[in-house]
Design brief:
Elements (H helix, E strand, L loop, with lengths): L2 H7 L17 E4 L2 E4 L22 H23 L5 E12 L7 H16 L6 E7 L8 E9 L2
Parallel strand pairs: 3-4
Antiparallel strand pairs: 1-2, 2-5, 3-5
Helix pairs in contact: 2-3
Amino acid sequence: MSVGDRLAELGLTLPPVAAPVAAYVPAVVSGQYVYTAGQLPFVDGALPVTGKVGVTVDADTAAGQARVAALNALAAVESVAGSLDRVARVVKVTVFVASDPSFTGQPGVANGASTLVGEVFGDAGVHARSAVGVAVLPLDAPVEVELVVELTA
């Protein structure tokens, strides 16, 4: 089954690649790897949720936003790889969570991104991960997701 078919089966559509908010590109290819820039959970060019997790954003909402940001990261991968069918494996997922200092549930929030990647790629989606709490993210986004994927030759 193609990745496009799998996305359709999951009821998902890749969004247009989000426009950078500063001086960078959404993704680059180096050798057989794609590195994405941090992707925010934009939907139709806007952030549907803003704020700090543990204060104005609950953990479940933040996990959903991590899922959206991961889908945006997949769009960035496709934009430079030509097709998500070229993904041999997802190597690393990094999730930044704008957190209240007392919030310690970053791994649960990051599961939103990890679960999406696993659903889309199956065994090739099993990855290493970092879930990092930060004071603030661009545009007051609650989460930001980066991917590193290996491409087939």
